[in-house]
Amino acid sequence: MVNNSQSREQQFLGVLQQVTRLTSVVLDHQEVMDTIVRALPALLDIDACTIRLLDTSTRTFVLGAAHGVSLEYLSRDVIDAEETLAMIRSGYPVFSAHVDEDPFLPFREAAHREGIKSVLTLPILFQGDLIGIMRLLTRRARSFSSEEISFAMALAEQVGIAISHGRLFKNMEAQLSFLREIQGISSLVNSTLNLEGILGALAERAAVTMRAKGCTLRLVDPESGVLRLAASHGVSGAYLNRGEIEKERNIQMVLAGEPVAIYDVSHDQRIDYHQQMIEEGIVSLLAVPVKVNGEVIGVMRILTDEPRVFSDAEVRFAATLAEVGGTAIRNARNYQRINRLLEQIKEHEKFLGDIINSLRHQLLVLDRNRRVVLANRVFLDAAGKTEREVVGTHYTALCQAGEGEAACPVDQILQGEEMRPFVQEFRSDDQLRWFERTASPIHDDSGRVAYVIEIIRDITSEHMLEAEKIQSGKLQGIVELAGTVAHEINSPLFAALGTAQLLAEDALPAEAQEELAVIIRNLKQIGDLTQKMTAMTGFTSREYVGKSKILSLIQNDMESAANGTKEVRKE
Length: 571
Prior knowledge:
The protein is of the alpha+beta class. 49% of the residues lie in helices and 23% in strands.
């Protein structure tokens, strides 16, 4: 009996050593699981072995590896009774001697079809945490002794260590690969602003790096809120056009900001298009949100054609990749907005330039340093210069106030003075011209004067019209003065003329008669002159000898024709 016990212990020890040895030399946890499920049936005298891993996102057990049972049995909807799974989650093994006959087991029919009789379910633990379950199955009724169960628990613990170490190594290896890939994609993103090219490369690199069948990238349409396909890799057009996916539960969860991993898309209730995914050959998927500044703008899904339990490193890589994609989308969209804005600015500048150049008056725009930044065509034509020659010119070359005059308009604005009229006089081709300059400020956000707009208006015609008005006023004064003087002269003139004519009737010496005749003739000439002055409508002025000028009195047309024009000398 003792010998049998020692022999059994040595057998168990030998099996444990073999499992420990094979798990220590295998670094890929998937290979570890595949190796264990193939080796244990022969070592433990059982017919089949399965390993399922805990999917922390759904708190369910998904298939990791299996040997000795059919795919139909492995694909059943319910793994075991909830009471059994609750025991396993608590860290206890569960033995079922006749699973094909127990009416309370939900997988009894599947076990009966598979020919399974006895099942020992063991928790796979690592550092006290449940990471999966291992099941030992037989096609004959068999019981497990306490020693066998203890040994199986120790074996399951070694499996947990092996899987965790394999995961750790694989995660480290994957993280290095992912880091290099992130660096490469980041360099790609920073090297171009071609959004379509970036997203296409992103989908391809994600699928290749994660050894997946394919990848899809969909973005939310800002106007309709519908997910639009932006890029894809490794999947068919029929799959991509299968219908709207916005209402799928997995999509809604991702749009809420959380990644979603699905082990079996053919049965998961978070998927709507099961048949289309089966036809496409998709088995598992990982969906992560595409974010920009914390806002979810899309969904990236990694699709595999083999069962996959996505590791934390894979989830983080996919999320980081999606974040890089979000950054690329933001940069590309900003670039597109800037281009559209520049085009609009160019159109606005052209429109504004057309308006400025269509102004009748000269226009200048100067910065706070008094340098010209813009001049319209009217100014350039008047100055006889090109825009290149004028832009950058200092204001002092364009306007200088004389002694006693107000400062130039731009100087008034920049010095904070109240705008006062400023008129400049120019002589061009021996012709005087007058220009009125006015200025208005343009303030920046802080209230400082950023630019000054100066309008230069040619007022030569107005100036000459005003001078003519003044001359006309003077003429009217002269005409009125001439009438008044004529009226005042006529009274004594007529009295003197009457007296002289009475004296001429008297008998006077011949000499006196001649002198009196001269007086009467001169008085009549003065009378003619006053009559012309009364009828005067204007006068003209022309140069005479030295500084003298002669005024030519202008009468109305009839009197001018009868009497001619009287010239009066003026010193």
